[in-house]
């Protein structure tokens, strides 16, 4: 049994890369950038008008402007740049338009009256307001998004702005989700008294979908030969195997032994945590297949997957995942030997975490009530209200 | 101009429903439940063995057990329930198995030695450990997930457990994303000096995708007749129009006027907030089409969409969205007249929010650096370190 921080370190050490691919911008949300992104123009790309009104040439800002200007025409957004033909002329200008040649001052409609082709200025004082100058946000060639970043909706807008209709992203690993256990039946089956329906496989499937990965579902019965043959084939075909069930010490829990025979090196088995202690993690050295074997309990599978696999995935494809932090709303008993994942709800006003279940075990249905899990590392003294701890939000 | 809380209230008042549909469990993550979900069996559905070992009939827990028991056979997980044939017999049992008839006590392998068909007990003290009793988590017919809940990966597992291979969810609205502005060109085009590429439309598209909605993209030029014809058709075809640009006061910003002519009732225009002040919101009374018209600035569009539309969507399909709360890491100047959306990063240790940009405006590229926005309601006194405020995490 190893401590949780060591288990995580071992898992992260097994980070791997799966190449890159070019995909359409419309598919890129949630993927990890495989290229640095630079601006291809100054931003804004021209002296951009920020208000609707008129543009004049004013030059000396201390002197009051002429009382009125002849309206020469309109500089609309999206129209090529016009020029003021005379110092006593103005152009009506629209938000988003390029500032006309010769013009240096915008007067918004609120401070102008336009009558019979002339604009009468009603502003007491002028200044170079309402012009968003070329390059004032960023210069051409600036780095705006770095390789490894997980692409947000806002980033999609940035990528569009710099003309990336396709973008290079990290390829996703191929993942098999393997349920084991003869007591399991399909979701649409009516279980007999001693049977239960599969559930972990679907939770894992949905968790992978969230990351853009379409997992492939398999079920293998508790038969040594069937397990050996299936696992041998799956180790060849996939980059990652997610197993649920079959890692405790029973007669029919052959999986660690078979994985060993098939060349998967055990990196650790059993972590000093609750729930999820019997977690088994290994890797096939020549095939480079990673094996996350979760204990069969749904809450155990859940926390192990969203803690270990999720961090492994982020580290593999891009940057390390930043766990969010929350404040504890109450004291929670610690465990001197085990790290605890404690099911919590967040107070709507303070955002602080209240435990639903102190002892860090918890059944399947408690997952329906929880908003996530706080991670309380092993220690001798209880956790106190106001302490900041890691938080795994329910996905 | 109305205050932000009133704007939100008006938006939420326009919540609407779009019917329900049955979909596969595999597609249900992130959708909103349109039915209450009950357990169809006790959980666990039988007295479930929690350890590998042997099962005996012990009856009186104060008395030490027989020194050894004849091994009658194996009760595997997924096998129908066996019976202990004699009081001096035991059954080997596996995690997940049903507790055999007559048996009442589990002794794990760690406390047993099995030799020549007999099990020798090495435990000093026994108890009814390691049995997860039928119905101890929940009884058949219990409500586990309520109508209106947004389905998480954990919920997918719960739905599987109770046999929901298909699930009834709220239908999603049909959404059109309409960019306007003659200065905009497509992402894959090389803009001329006075042009910029479309970006807001793609940010909105990605934001909708996150909610399972495939938005349809349109662009309409700044031509009154083209706008009128296109908007008339789109109001008929869609449940929601998201417009970006075209709601300030310029000569070519015809949209509010045209929407009015087409029967869309303006609910408000301009909100006391920064950025995003010129937000326009309306609804067509007979067609029931909602119109969110965002100002063209990318940060304005972003905060308005993820604040107003997102909350409207959750309220329409399920339950009101709970904004998360964060603590401020520093003081931030308030504005007595305007609510501010301030771009922040979260401290990795404390989780507290540090402002990237105090004044609540911000350019497109600042979106690349931000982790989200804190919402600081209008008030006369500055915000202080330690205050808890609403937080919009970047999606």
Automatic annotation (TrEMBL), chains A, B:
Protein name listed in UniProt: Molybdopterin molybdenumtransferase
Organism from which the protein derives: Echinicola pacifica
Listed pathway(s): Cofactor biosynthesis; molybdopterin biosynthesis
Function: Catalyzes the insertion of molybdate into adenylated molybdopterin with the concomitant release of AMP.
Name of encoding gene: moeA
InterPro entries the record matches: MoaB/Mog-like_dom_sf, MoaB/Mog_dom, MoCF_biosynth_CS, MoeA-like, MoeA_C_domain_IV, MoeA_C_domain_IV_sf, MoeA_linker/N, MoeA_linker/N_sf
Reaction(s) catalysed by this chain's protein: adenylyl-molybdopterin + molybdate = Mo-molybdopterin + AMP + H(+)
Signal peptide: none
CDD domains in the cross-refs: MoeA (cd00887)
């Amino acid at each position: 049994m190893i401590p949780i921080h060591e288990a995580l370190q071992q898992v992260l050490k097994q980070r791997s890369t799966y190449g890159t691919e070019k995909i359409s911008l419309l598919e890129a949300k949630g993927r990890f950038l495989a290229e640095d992104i630079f601006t291809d123009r100054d931003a804004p790309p021209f002296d951009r008008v920020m208000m609707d009104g008129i543009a004049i040439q004013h030059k000396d800002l201390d002197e009051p402007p002429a009382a009125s200007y002849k309206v020469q025409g309109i500089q609309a957004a999206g129209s090529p740049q016009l020029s003021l033909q005379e110092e006593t002329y103005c152009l009506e200008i629209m938000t988003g338009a390029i500032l006309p040649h010769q013009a240096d001052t915008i007067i918004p409609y609120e401070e102008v009256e336009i009558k019979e082709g002339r604009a009468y200025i009603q502003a007491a004082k002028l200044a170079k307001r309402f012009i968003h100058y070329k390059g004032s946000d960023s210069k051409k060639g600036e780095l705006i998004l770095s390789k490894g970043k997980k692409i947000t909706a806002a980033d999609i807008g940035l990528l569009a702005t710099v003309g990336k209709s396709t973008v290079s992203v990290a390829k996703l690993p191929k993942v098999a989700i393997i349920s084991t256990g003869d007591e399991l039946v399909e979701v649409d089956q009516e279980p007999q008294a001693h049977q239960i329906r599969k559930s972990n496989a679907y939770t894992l499937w949905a968790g992978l979908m969230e990351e853009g990965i379409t997992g492939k579902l398999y079920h293998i019965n508790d038969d040594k030969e069937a397990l050996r043959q299936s696992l041998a084939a799956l180790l060849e075909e996939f980059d990652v195997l997610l197993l649920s069930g079959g890692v405790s010490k029973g007669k029919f829990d052959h999986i660690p032994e078979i994985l060993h025979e098939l060349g998967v090196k055990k990196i650790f088995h059993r972590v000093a945590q609750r729930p999820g202690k019997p977690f088994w993690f290994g890797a096939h050295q020549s095939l480079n297949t990673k094996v996350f074997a979760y204990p069969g309990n749904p809450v155990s599978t859940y926390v192990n997957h969203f803690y270990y696999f999720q961090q492994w995935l982020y580290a593999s494809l891009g940057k390390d995942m930043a766990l969010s932090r929350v404040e504890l709303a109450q004291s929670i008993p610690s465990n001197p030997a085990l790290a605890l994942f404690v099911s919590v709800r967040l107070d709507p006003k303070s955002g602080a975490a209240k435990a639903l279940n102190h002892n860090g075990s918890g059944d399947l249905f408690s997952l329906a009530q929880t908003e996530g899990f706080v991670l309380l590392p092993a220690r001798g003294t209880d956790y106190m209200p106001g302490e900041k701890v890691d938080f795994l939000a329910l996905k």
